[in-house]
Amino acid sequence: MSKTIIIIGAGLAGLSAALQAAENGCDVKLVSSFPSERAQSVMAEGGINAALNTKDENDSPEEHFTDTIKAACGLADPNAVWGMTQAAPELVHWLLKLGVQFNMSGYDDVELRNFGGQKKKRTAFAQSDTGKQIMTAMIDAVRRKEASGMVERFSHHSFLTLRLCDNICCGCVIRDEYSQETVELPGDAVIVATGGMHGLFGNTTGSLSNTGEVTAELFRLGVPLANGEMIQYHPTTVKCGGKRMLISEAARGEGGRLFAMKDGKQWYFMEEKYPELGNLMPRDITAREIWKVSHESEVFLDMTEISDEIISNKLSGLADDCMTYLHKDIRKEPVSVLPGIHYFMGGILVDEQHRTPIQNLYAAGECCAQYHGANRLGGNSLLGALYGGRVAAKSACEQADVVDLSCATQIDFPPASQISEIKQLNKVMQETMGVVRNENTLLNGIQTVQALTGNLPLLGMAVLKSALARKESRGAHWREDYPKSNDDDYLKTTVARFDGKQIQISFVPVPERR
């Protein structure tokens, strides 16, 4: 008898898990509140990393591993990262066979571009619409599984809570957003792939559908949060319609240059301060430098020196977006930029096999803390979602213990947070969890958030307390009152746990490489 695997979320990690689980002979139930075409994965622009070494630079998965661990400031599980970087070339070739329209170099070589934190060209891309191209191919592949009956899709359904038998997951409860009907969905394993905690802040570059509510409910149920303070600010974003519009790192990879005016002249501060990588320094460093300079002068991204051919062949989507939403022709004028919240390295605590501490519960993609540590390399998000979905599905299909699906305890639904409280939470999180943080603002934020009710404020409190407890600066977490890193005390994963009454923060050593 085949196992039933329930997957919550139908973005890249969810689709990857669905394909893998179906190929493993499991019955798949794919639950999502929005169609896959509206998933945040579609918005990814820059590319996907893989050491294909088509540029004769002697690149290798080992160097990709080294760059990833370095960017992560030592906080990523080296065994998990090794598996991901070793698998990356095969995954990109698999995507190519699936029909992804990557830019090509010559007849059959995938074109590669430079990306931040990496000295060698290893980012495969499809102009500046890589996520859209990959998701289109993945959606088609999953639809074939749906047509054959191997995948059953529950569209316009929202996750409410888990079905639990003691500490064993045996399914979940979902709600039909059209009829408002509540449905108990039994299953042998649940894989959560619901994206980052963007709803805590509200003004990120991410999808508004990635509210973080699922992670918040799991946290309420006792699932730990790891490295919640590690929030990536993308260096180059623009305010647009109440959110932040991303100016892809691909623009700098193709020759875009950051500058500010100093003494009446253009000052290319990244090139002056970091001559080796210049505008392609890791995102945490670049975001911090822009934040500092912006206090004295407006910061611009100049793409006018990029040739029309490159813009047409590699950055056409970005150019169109800037013209449509910003009324800026990047061929003729620079764009004013500031850092904006873009990615959550922290999330649900999982091990190398994407297992959570609750038996038969797994997580993959941006919702979990895996592969990126304190700072994510550009191009590793799509890779981590694709690879992580596969690993989670393999683990669930092979390891999930069959349980009595009728033994679930009484379902407990938490009260929903009020819209007014969510807006207040967003404001507090924006003010306290910025590019640079300090104890006073964090304590003030905690005092305000603890008066709010509901799951999201509880999750926000876990993030704030994690940031307060890490008394050092590392990667995306920068404390101006503790500006140096402290490996003796904090080269460890921050773990926040809720016991039903209070949040406890602890630090757990990063696994050693086998």
From TrEMBL:
Domain Fumarate reductase/succinate dehydrogenase flavoprotein-like C-terminal: 455-510
Top-level taxon of origin: Bacteria
Signal sequence annotation: 1-21
Record carries keyword Signal: yes
Pfam family, one: FAD_binding_2
InterPro entries linked: FAD-dep_OxRdtase_2_FAD-bd, FAD/NAD-bd_sf, Fum_R/Succ_DH_flav-like_C_sf, Fum_Rdtase/Succ_DH_flav-like_C, SdhA/FrdA/AprA, Succ_DH/fumarate_Rdtase_cat_sf
Keywords: Flavoprotein, Oxidoreductase, Signal
Keyword Nucleotide-binding applies: no
Domain spans labelled FAD-dependent oxidoreductase 2 FAD-binding: 5-382
Name the UniProt record assigns to this protein: FAD-binding protein
Highest classification ranks of the organism: Bacteria, Bacillati, Bacillota, Clostridia, Eubacteriales
